[in-house]
Amino acid sequence: MTETAPISSPRDPHYTLTNAWEFADERLTLLGAAYDPDSIALAQRLGVGAGWRCLDAGAGGGSFARWLCDATLPGGRVLAVDADPRHLTDLPDRGGEVAQIDLVTGDLPECAFDFVHTRFVLLHIARRDIVLERLARALAPGGVLMLEEGDGLGVHEEMPGAFGEVWRAFARSTETAGADQAWARNLPAHLEALGLVDVRAAVEIPVFRGGSPMARMWDLTWMQAHETLIAHGVAPTVTATAQAELRDEQRWFYAPPTVRAWGRARSPSDAS
After folding, report:
1. Which of 34, 160, 169, 248 has the fewest CB atoms found within 10 Å of its own CB?
2. 226-229 — which CB contacts under 8 Å span 24+ positions?
């Protein structure tokens, strides 16, 4: 049975980049194009497949949730939740479920999923530790929690040119709004503190060419954050220069590191 929650136009007070922006659909599509291949490869390594019950928390544009539908249905379950699920309306046609849930204040099913995933969501939520606990509680015995989050790890201080200047101001603006650009590096310890076992983690620094999907995604991010960047001291000419750099196919850039951490909820067999 599939169920689609009523879709309205809320501004999520806990998240620094909202889905309500006019170009958010394009930005989220580009983000999926840039990051889905690595997300999918890791999920496959972790065994996600036919019959798995899956939760995608903060599903955003829904590209990863669509892959989960293809990988696990029929026979499994895919629940995609977001505070503003306007970009997820096609999932029920694929056999998935959509729920409009605020991850900080809303209720998630407990002990219900074999796989729980979130990507680039928790670092933007000021009360992220509460959400992380809820995600861990959503795991069925033996279920896998897979987290993907950005972290500066000192790299953004070395980013050259206007792109680096704008990114540093953007990072400051997100932290003013409650984000923590240094939180993800401690994800393995957080998962172990929640009682998960077989915890592992990896870090990747994406390198991309100007004019690529990732470059366009950052270009749109600067558009969405334009007024905020001005408030944090970035002249519009600097932002425009950074956007021109991102459109130049002769340039190469590196993005903030992506920390991927995963762990498994204990099962009865762990006690034997």
Report:
1. 160
2. 228/170, 228/173, 229/166, 229/169, 229/170, 229/173
Which two structure tokens, joined as six digits, stand for 41? 């490869």
Q: At what angle do helices 63-72 and 24-45 cross, to 10 degrees?
A: 40
**144 pairs with which residues across the strands?**
115, 264
Superfamily of domain covering 24-152+180-207+256-266: Vaccinia Virus protein VP39 (3.40.50.150)
99 phi, psi to nearest 5 deg: -135, 135
The token pair that represents 22 in the structure block: 């006019």
Q: Could you report the per-residue pLDDT of 18-76, keeping only the tens digit for each? A: 666 667 788 889 999 999 999 999 999 999 999 999 999 999 999 999 999 999 999 99
Which range has the top average pLDDT, 133-137, 163-167, 229-233?
Answer: 133-137
Going by C-alpha positions, the residue among 208, 206, 207, 216 that lies closest to residue 247 is: 216
What's the rounded mean pLDDT across residues 210-232?
A: 91
Domains in the chain: boundaries: 24-152+180-207+256-266
